What does this fold into?
Amino acid sequence: MSELLVWKSRNNRRPLLLLGARQTGKTWLSEQFGEAEYSKVARIDFLRDNQAKRIFDGNFDTERLLMEIGIQTGVNITPGDTLIILDEVQECSRALTSLKYFCEDASEYHVIATGSYMGIAMHDGESYPVGKVDTMRLYPLSFLEFLRNSGDGPLAEMIASQGAGTVSGAFEERLKRQLKMYMFVGGMPAIVAEYEQSKNLREIRRLQQGILDDYDNDFSKHAPPRLLERLRQVWASLPAQLSKENRKFVYGVVRPGARARQFEECLQWLCDYGIAYRIPCVSAIRTPLKSYAQPETFKMFCFDTGLLGALSKVDAATVIDGSAIFTEFKGAMTEQYVCQQLMVQHLTPYYWAKENSRTEVDFVIETHNTVMPVEVKAELNLKAKSLKSAVERFGLQRSIRTSLAGYRDEGWVTNIPLWAIGSINSMV
It folds into this structure.
């Protein structure tokens, strides 16, 4: 909401694309913003209103568009005090194109377009409004946001503003318990709301499976038919791909004998859709990391721990059984969790693997004009042989290890508890 307020106040404001996977709260957020900050809201839902698509069949004269949107919604649209919401804009590619003309010819009007699979609209023959839109991406709730919704707002604020080193040991077990639940529940808004209301883990899993079914239906509806079977195979392979035994995405895990050229487009489709992240390997831990990325070597992560657990059939009993959830399929659930927290902080994670060696650093990030390797450990394990090797090889001053152990600064490495990795920028 605070980012939307900044967008509203800009003198050079452009139409806003509010992006995110299905059920991350795009419609809810845009409507809440409209009700709180504007006198009127004119909203079109292209999923439900096929008639509204015809408004954009003609020319892109903004006066005509504004008049017809007003007629369709029953709202007298006036500049400055009316928010125009074009919901599920991927269903009407010409509405996406119209944002270019709202930017150029009617910038005094406030327009938000929401989309779940914007990548599809980019490739269907219509012009994407490059340079004519502002963008904002919604993610599942972070762990700190989960805490705020679970009645532990003061703890979340302490971690976010002051770092893990200020949190008393008296609260560590409480944070670990909450983290275990987050690993199972994940951060999808409706799932978190159900958890807060019922605490019924079976119902949580049922709802998560429902979201997965919705995604599968979207695959059938929007993916090119030639990709559909392979797309489902890639999506289903994510739990196996995240095994620590795989130092990169292995096409043979998807299907025996598979080759990159057969699945590359499927991988990009999942990333465009917003439900998977592609994390490249870098050949060196040096700035800028992008210059050392090896596009052909990468890992794929799901965008939500809860949905990954549902996809891999992690049983609810795993949450209760000690720290088992952190070690599921060789600790990959913990890596998934860390990746998710880095993405929410607008950090771009990479990873590093030494050629012809088992030495590997789980993530590498660039923050505060420096590069920082991040080693992920399940449970209380503090061994960091690969991390030490990377620090020495590239002459790094600092590194991060994250585990269930408490905060400690050892000079060359800082151990940040897993429950605090979501505020990494305040601690490095």
